[in-house]
Amino acid sequence: MWDYSEKVQDHFFNPRNAGAVAGANAIGDVGSLSCGDALRLSLKVDSDSETILEAGFQTFGCGSAIASSSALTEIIKGMTLEDALKVSNQDIADYLDGLPPEKMHCSVMGREALQAAVANYRGEVWKDDHEEGALICKCFAVDAVLIEDTIRANGLSTVEEVTNYTKAGGGCSACHEGIEEILTRVLAEQGRTFDPTASAPAPKKKKLGTLERVRRIETAIAAIRPNLQRDHGDVELVEIDGKNVYVNMTGAGACSGCQMAATTLDGIQQRIVEDLGEFVRVLPGSAL
């Protein structure tokens, strides 16, 4: 399991500014459900001073994505748009007393959502569409520009770091050569030399058998149940269909029909992903 700071855990279990802002005049959407991370940032901006009066988020993702989004909204409230645009993904991570290296892409996604929201407020088109030939990682739709900018902004020097910050290369690994080429070029501009031996991908984990996979999912859910039961709620496993894990939220407490039920599902998903060592989606109800 990742080593989360107390502040990350606090912002996950008690997210600030969760939900859409009523009367928002700036909205930024980044990511996609198919990639496992999606974030909508909504802002209410004072038209005279361009000060952010309110900020809210809606996210589909892991605990780090929720915590990063929560932290971002707290950081930028009260800022002017110009000052908010100076907030870096590292500022978000520092606010949370650090993120696991493998989860830094969550802070990058928050910064992108902010850029998209500001562009939306100004009537501009914020494009993350990829130019012909510029797409590097097809698994997570990450282009060369994002990789280059992230390397420069965070001083990255290995493929592993690029994967941690952007998710590029975290799927089939076919794009590692392309990432290495970008690293070689960007580091050369900085007078540095890319060392391919420092970015060699770790050996792939042995694929789990069906019974072991089910057992780990059941164990992960069992570990979460006491926290839900303290709020008079509960969760039960319905079925497993490939990458989709279907559960029912039960009980008379906050877990059944609660406005934060989606956040609870995100927490269950995060725990299963970490214990299982692969990405799955936790969804309510049955596939049938």
- CATH class of the largest domain, please? Alpha Beta
Terminus-to-terminus distance: 32 Å
- Strand arrangement within the widest β-sheet reads 1-2-3
Instruction: Classify the helix fraction into a percent range.
Output: 40-55%
How many DSSP E strands?
8
Q: Which outline best applies? A: globular
Q: Ranges with pLDDT <50 over ≥5 residues? A: 129-133
For the residues shown, what is the average pLDDT?
84
Strand content: 15-25%
State the secondary-structure class: alpha+beta
Assign the CATH topology of the largest domain: Sufe protein. Chain: A
Largest sheet: 3 strands, antiparallel
Radius of gyration: 20 Å
CATH architecture of the largest domain: Alpha-Beta Complex
- Number of H/I helices: 10
Helix and strand element order: HEEEHHHHEEHHHHEEHE
How many structural domains are formed by the residues?
Answer: 3
3D architecture notes:
With 288 residues, the chain is an alpha+beta fold. The protein has three domains: 6-121, Sufe protein. Chain: A, CATH 3.90.1010; 135-199, Arc Repressor Mutant, subunit A, CATH 1.10.10.1100; 210-284, GMP Synthetase, Chain A, domain 3. It has ten helices and eight strands. The protein has helices at 6-13, 63-76, 81-84, 89-95, 104-121, 144-154, 159-166, 176-189, 210-230, 261-276, and strands spanning 26-32, 37-45, 52-60, 135-137, 142-143, 233-241, 244-251, 281-284. The protein has a three-stranded antiparallel β-sheet. Strands 6-7-8 form a three-stranded mixed β-sheet. The chain has a two-stranded antiparallel sheet with strand order 4-5. A hairpin with a 4-residue loop joins strand 4 (135-137) and strand 5 (142-143). It is globular, with a radius of gyration of 20 Å.
